[in-house]
Amino acid sequence: MRSPWPTSWRCPPLPVLFLSVLILALAETAGAIIGRYRGDINTWLTEAVSRRPEVHGLTGSRDYDAELIPQIVFQSEAGLSFFHTHGEGMALVVLAGGTVVSSLVASRAARGFLNVLLAAGVVFPLGFLAYAGLIVPMGVDPAVDWAERWILIPAGSAVTAAFALLALALVVQGVRARGARKGSAPATR
Amino acid sequence: MTDPAAEGTLWRRPPLPMILACVALIGLAEAAGGAMVKFKWPIANMARELMLRRPAVHGLVGVREVDEEVLDKLKQAIDAQLRLFHLHAEGMGLVILTGAMIVATVVPASPLQRWLYWLLGLGALYPLGYLAAPAFIIPLGLERGKRVAEVLFWIPFGGAVIVAMWVLTGWLAREMWRRHRTPLRPAGDDGEAGAR
User: Fold this and answer.
1) Based on the structure, what is the number of domains in chain B?
2) Which of A24, A29, A36 sits opposite B95 (nearest CB)?
3) Would you call B163 helix, strand, or coil by DSSP?
4) B140 contacts B56 by C-beta, under 8 angstroms
5) Within a 13 Å sphere around the CA of B106, how many CA atoms are in the beta-carbon half?
6) What residues make up the domain containing A165?
7) Which terminal CB of chain B, N or C, has fewer other CB atoms within 10 Å?
C-alpha cells in the first residue's frame, strides 16, 4: 500500500481519460453547431412543434399558439446549451476528481469503485441532450421527466456520491495515518 | 518501457508556451469580466456614439423612438459578445490546458503530439473572436459583423480545437483497444521496474 499522502499528481485510468475527452469533444461540437446553425435549429424546432399540436397543447388559436410555441422551442434550445456547458464542465470535474483519486486514495479497490462512479458523471450532460431531443415528440414535461429519471438523477447522484465518498476516504486515510504515526512514535516521559 | 497510458502515470506538463497562452487567456478573461462591470456604461455609450455615426449601416431612420429601440438591441448584442468572451476565454483556457496535459502525458513524443499541441494552441485564439466581434459590428452592422468574426476566428480556431479533441478521442480509444488486446507484462518479467 502506498504512503497516504504522496506528493505527485497521477493520471486517472485510461477509460476515465477517454470518456472525459469524448464528452469534451461532443460538447465542443454541439457548441459549434448551436452557434453556427442557431437560426436553422430555431426554425426546424418551431415547425416540428407546430406539426404536433396534440403533444404540445396547441389550440389552433393563433394568438395563444404564437406565445406558446416560442416557449417550447426555448426549452429545447436551453437543453442544447446546457449540454454544451455541462459537457465541458463535467469533463474537467471528472478529470480533476480522477486525478485526486489516482493520486491520493491508497486502496486499489476504492480507487476502482470511485473511478466507476466518476465515469458516470460523463453520462450526466447527455441528459440535457436527451430532453432537448425528446421535447419535440413527447412534450416539455414528459421529456424532462424522462431525462431526469433515466439520466440526470442517476448519473448526477453517482458523481455526487463519488465526491462525498472521496472526501470520506481522504478523512479516514488521514485518521489512520495519524494513528499509525502515533503508534510508531517512541514513548517519551 | 512502461505504458504511458497506464493508471497512476505521473501527469506531465505541456510545453511552456502553451501554459503561458492559457494563463494569459484566463488573465485576460478575468480582466474583461471586471472591465465589463466597471466600464459597462462607458462601453455602451461609446458603442452608441459610434453606431449613430453610421445610420445607414445600422438601419437608423432619424426617428428617436425607432432608433432608440434599434440602438438598444445593438448595445445588448455587443454586451453579449463581451460576456461570451469572458465565459469562453475562462473555459477555453482550462480546456486547452487540460487537453495539452493529456497529450503530454499519454501521447508519445511524435509528429502527432506536435500536431495536437498546435491545434489545441490555436484554440486559444477562438475567444478573441468575441472581443473582435463588436469591432466588426460597429462598422459593418450586426449580422455582417458577426459573420466576419465567425469566418476570421470562430470557424478556424474553434474548428482546430474540435479536430484536436476528436483526434485525441480516437487515439485514446485505439490505446484502450491496444491494451485490451495485448495486456502489459507484469513488472519484473523483463527486469524493468513497474509503473509504481
Assistant:
1) 1
2) A24
3) helix
4) no
5) 29
6) 14-174
7) N
Nearest CA in chain A to B123: A28
Residue type, position A136, single letter: V
**What residues have CB less than 8 Å from B153, skipping those under 6 apart?**
B125, B126, B128, B129, B132
Touching check for B120 and chain A: CB below 8 Å? no
Q: Which residues constitute the domain of residue B149?
A: 16-181
DSSP 8-state assignment for residue B124: G
Tens digit of each residue's pLDDT (9 = 90 or more) over A128-141: 999 999 999 999 99
Instruction: Give the residues across from A10 on adjacent strands.
Output: B10
What angle separates helix B64-106 from helix A14-36, to the nearest 10 degrees? Answer: 160
- d(CA B148, CA B136) in angstroms, rounded, equals 7
Nearest to A18 among B105, B173, B196 (CB): B173
Q: Does B180 touch chain A (CB under 8 A)?
A: no
For residue A2, tell me if it sits in a domain: no
Nearest-neighbour CA in chain A from B131: distance (Å): 16
B196 lies in a domain?
Answer: no
ipTM of the prediction = 0.86
| Three-state DSSP state, A52 | coil
Predicted confidence (pLDDT) per residue in A24-56, tens digit: 999 999 999 999 999 999 999 999 999 998 888
Ranges of residues in chain A with a pLDDT under 50 are 189
Average pLDDT, chain B: 87
Whether B102 has its CB under 8 Å from any CB of chain A: the answer is yes
Q: How many domains does chain A have?
A: 1
B130 assigned to some structural domain:
yes
Across the interface, which of A10, A29, A91 has its CB nearest the CB of B10? A10
Chain B residues inside the 8 Å CB shell of A36: 150, 155
User: Cβ-count burial of B117 within 10 angstroms (0-12 exposed, 13-18 middle, 19+ buried)?
Assistant: buried
Q: What is the pTM of this model?
A: 0.86
Scanning the structure block, which residue is given the C-alpha cell 509528429?
B111
- Helix B40-52, helix B64-106: angle, nearest 10: 120
